[in-house]
Amino acid sequence: MSSTTLLLSLFKYKAWANDELFAELDKLDPQARQAERHLAIRLLNHIHVVDRIFAAHLAGQPHAYTATNTPETPTLAELRDAVAQTDRWYVAYIEGLTPQQLEESLPFVFTDGANGLMSREEMLAHVATHGGYHRGAVGRIMAQAELPPPRDIFTVYLHRAEPARRERG
After folding, report:
1. What is the spatial distance between Cα 102 and Cα 84, in angstroms, rounded to a whole number?
2. Distance CA 36, CA 141 (A)
3. ∠ at Cα 59 (117, 102), nearest 5°?
4. Is 115 helix (H, G, I), strand (E, B) or coil?
5. Which tens digits make up the pLDDT trace of 60-77?
6. In which band, very low, low, confident or very high, does the pLDDT at 163 lie, cut at 50, 70 and 90?
7. Which CATH class is domain 3-166?
8. CA separation for the pair 82, 52 (Å, rounded)
């Protein structure tokens, strides 16, 4: 398996996991569980902001973020739409990369002003793992609020996306 194939699979999984999480989080009562819902949205917004920051780094474009979260908190619906759009951007971006581009190192500046240098492949790996880490925290919030989180597991995604993997030859 090539790095491109693996990254593409991971980002399709990320999009699936985000869809599943937003669908379940929408069931969290906004009145009775206001604090938990707000914290979950703040964490998901942080993931999204970091995703957008690294998308800008990968595209060689500036971004307007001065921190890794925004002062305002979007609605769950607004954030869901923005995350889905960003997930589609990453999948399309990876589909257009060559192996040589994946290896290319790009200089950038973190929101705290520190310089950074990472390959495209490293940046993509960071975005994939960073999102998984924080989705897990949201899942914990949901569980504490007595709402079972979705099964955010790569193997679950692979077997749902490709049911033939369950068949034995």
Report:
1. 23
2. 6
3. 60
4. strand
5. 999 999 999 999 999 999
6. confident
7. mainly alpha
8. 10
